[in-house]
Amino acid sequence: MIERVKNAAWAAIVVVAASSAVTAETLADALTSAYNNSGLLEQNRALLRAADEDLAQSVASTLPVINWSAGVTNTRPNNVPGAELLQANAQISASLTLYDGGANRLAIESQKETILGTRQSLRSIEQDVLLRAVQAYMDVRSDTEFVSLRQNNVRVLTQEFRAAQDRFEVGEVTRTDVALAEARLAAARSALAAAEGELARSIEEYRAAVGRAPQQLRPVSAAPVSRGIEDAKNFAVRNHPDIIQSQHAVSAAELNIRRAEAALKPTVSLQGSITTDEDWNDSRQIGLQASGPIYGGGRLSSQIRQFMSRRDAARSVLLVTSQGIAQQVGNAYSFLRVARASRAASDQQIRAARVAFEGVREEATLGSRTTLDVLNAEQELLDAQANLISAQAEEVVASYSVLAAMGLLNADHLRLPVQQYDPSQYYNLAKDAPVAISRQGQALDRVLRSIGD
After folding, report:
1. Lowest mean pLDDT among 42-46, 378-382, 418-422, 444-448
2. What is the mean pLDDT of residues 174-180?
3. 8-state DSSP, 284
């Protein structure tokens, strides 16, 4: 009877597997969906475009500024009854900064460094999104296997409980053996309910990380890690996006110091205007204007010191980030080694536990083992199988964590079939501060409207 039940169960599993093979998905599928559906990536892409516009505004400060104005004045003198004077005028004025000590140029260079740093921030966010998807994928897979394991455990313990009842009825075991089997069965049902709850939680996390519900998830092998730990650390401190971002932050801070120092220098601008009154009489003016600080209560000197302190803080952030990245690489390799060793040990543990369980169960039928011995052997086999499931998932996650720690967990390195976001396209359109009626300005408007839609 037991063999017939097992055969029927395996047949059902084969049917389910065959029907779901069409809808089965790989880890690459999940990572592709996570990349395409991530609101966090969209948010940071928008922040990068905003940084590009900051550069455009800095560039605009070096270009001519042209304004217009118009007004009408109605004057009624008190000492002249009935007199009324109506005056109208229109003016176009223009100004161009000729010299400012390099402040505008330094502002442009500083903003370029900020943009480069923001691009690296986007790369770091991409790594976080993909690593979260890997973790969610493996959680669903392992929790699904846990549920299947717990269901099988309930079936086995149900059979053990019924066998104990049968043996009790013929006087082979005591009521204590029946109670032990019943208690273990109740515990297995409780563990199954907990496993089903964890699976439900993992599915919701998968929805959030990937952007849709999981389908039949295929097994995953660990990501290939070929570098040694020291080589990986050296690579990471040179290429990790967090470190490169901190380097750009230091460069921007140093430029801001020079920009603050330039504020102490004079500014020379070319100004001109054309004014026309109601009789179309016009007057034209053009001239140079120079200005500079004499005394500002120490505000400018304070700003220089403030930017120096911010540069020192940025350097410290770079140092701390480098140390943190090296530590992350070391930790990731450590977790990977532990997971690999755990998986190998779990394989050996399962083989030994299965032999022991089958032997104890056979000995129990001969009366040389108790029901408790059988239950304990079955629990040891269950624990070994659960350990293997956890170790396999941890090995995969640890291998991808190594890639993330090295700065390689991105769509390009993983060769995901996605349309990768190219930050240079919007930058090239916006960097020259085009006006709305220009071809570049109209292209920018189309880009933003299409993103908004």
Report:
1. 378-382
2. 85
3. E
Q: Which of 249, 417, 253, 234 is nearest to 326 (CA)?
A: 234
Instruction: Report pLDDT digits (tens) over 393-414.
Output: 999 999 999 999 999 999 999 9
Closest CA to 131 of 416, 424, 316, 402: 402
Contacts of the segment 121-125: beta carbons below 8 A, 24+ positions apart: 121/44, 121/48, 121/241, 121/245, 122/41, 122/44, 122/45, 122/48, 122/421, 122/423, 123/241, 123/407, 123/410, 124/241, 124/242, 124/245, 125/40, 125/41, 125/44
pLDDT digits (tens, 9 = 90+) for 11-56: 434 433 444 445 689 999 999 999 999 999 999 999 999 999 999 9
Radius of gyration for the alpha carbons in the chain, expressed in angstroms and rounded: 36
Query: 350 and 385 in contact (C-beta within 8 Å)?
Result: yes
Q: What is the pLDDT of residues 246-289, one digit of tens each?
A: 999 999 999 999 999 999 999 999 999 999 987 788 899 999 99
Residue 181 near residue 161 (C-beta atoms within 8 A): yes
The structure tokens listed for 420 are: 């990768």
For residues 404 and 352, give the distance between their C-alpha atoms in angstroms, rounded to a whole number.
Answer: 36
Q: How far is CA 343 from CA 140, 225, 385, 421, in A?
A: 19, 17, 10, 38
Q: Taking the mean position of all CA atoms in its chain, how far away is CA 307? A: 30
Rounded to an integer, what distance in angstroms lies between the CA atom of residue 442 and that of residue 438? 6
Decide: 400 and 414 in contact? Cβ < 8 Å: no
Nearest CA among 449, 325, 421 for reference residue 118: 421
- What are the helix and strand counts (H, E) for the chain? 12, 4
- 217 burial level (CB within 10 Å; 0-12, 13-18, 19+): buried
Nearest to 49 by CA among 119, 126, 108, 145: 119
User: Exposed/middle/buried for 235, CB within 10 Å: 0-12, 13-18, 19+?
Assistant: middle
- Helix, strand, or coil (residue 120): helix
Return d(Cα 130, Cα 124) in angstroms, integer.
10
Averaged pLDDT for residues 132-141: 94
